[in-house]
Amino acid sequence: MPKGRPREFDIQKALDAALLLFWRHGYEGTSLAALTKAMGINMPSLYAAFGNKEMLFRKALDRYLQKPASYLPMALQEPTTRRVAEKLFSGAIDMAMNPRHPDGCLLVQGALATGPAAAPIRKELNLRRAAAEAAVRRRFEQAITTADLPASVDAAQLACYIITVIWGLSVQAASGVTRAQLQDVAQFAMRCWPNWA
Amino acid sequence: MPKGRPREFDIQKALDAALLLFWRHGYEGTSLAALTKAMGINMPSLYAAFGNKEMLFRKALDRYLQKPASYLPMALQEPTTRRVAEKLFSGAIDMAMNPRHPDGCLLVQGALATGPAAAPIRKELNLRRAAAEAAVRRRFEQAITTADLPASVDAAQLACYIITVIWGLSVQAASGVTRAQLQDVAQFAMRCWPNWA
DNA sequence: CTAATTATGTAGCGATCGCTAAATATATAA
DNA sequence: TTATATATTTAGCGATCGCTACATAATTAG
User: Fold this and answer.
1) How confident is the model at residue A2 (pLDDT cuts 50, 70, 90)?
2) Which residues, other chains included, contact B196 with Cβ-Cβ below 8 Å and sequence gap of 6+?
3) Between chains, do B164 and A172 touch, taking CB under 8 Å as contact?
4) How many CB pairs under 8 A join A and B?
5) Is the pTM of this model over 0.90?
């Protein structure tokens, strides 16, 4: 046990509460007053445990990627690229429509357009979205070497298409569209999967 | 000429300046101080001419839909649904990548996730996005009656797919993706256009 | 025990938020 | 001219923003 007075709150539960708020209201739309209230702690405890608002958001973002958004690395482990794509869509829809947390994707609605003060967070999310697309691209490049995809396919282009549709699904989810509609979109999007040589 | 002291600024140019700020920084990320500076007027003039921040945003939104986002109703006038879809994509990309104004789409990045104070604006944008999708759906429904689309096609599903991809393209545009990449995505998305009976 | 260390609660910092009262300036109407 | 009406300027309102100083409480080390 460390020295000093022990912390009276669960740092993970507090982080989860912060994640939910950032997810629902965005980085700029979430005030520290709302955060401390939802986390059940007061301001000095928040600053001692997480640094400041920006660091708190980054830690909530890490947690988001590890837990609710883990569908993406999971999907990349599917044996065929077609099943990878299908899993990416179904996983994105399941997450964006899970009633246990806000609709949509934190990477998209966390800070898409912000004031100058939140520019570092906006850029961080840009990088994370680009990283997600790069992970999908690498998976497709690998599939070309194993002949699961024809060599004529542009892996980067295919990944950009899949990810673009997923960001679109995230926007739709945040807009109140039904799960069935998103599933129809995903099914439709899979119609242009490469059969071509 | 009306009575009283004449207005010393062009109300349309001021509105355009406000539109650019809202577009780039979102509703919450745009302060009235930044607005008055960019519009070249002071606060009482802004309130006399536009009401308040929310009304100013709504008027900027109207102007956005009439001018930069007019590609959508234009595209719906194309003779065939395939060309409608192609024009929707190319128009969306041209607008979201026009260097004369911020990247992306105001309907998406204006207020996707907000704090409670901006909830009315967020809901307004939800409605406008839904209205855009409904307009595309009606165009496709009409195409079924003229046999440009087979009756087996679900017009609502097709419209939802097209619009979802466009929102995704808007997110990608706001992320710094290149025009060529978006054009590849659009070309790829058109691969699943109905040839089926 | 005392000393050192860490967390909590209270209170409030300076800055910015959206917004407006009051005075002044410039036009038309009589 | 005088009265009326609208716009601009200056100044600052109350509220909230992110953040922190300070005192107090609770633990370990010695």
Assistant:
1) confident
2) B150, B152
3) yes
4) 155
5) yes
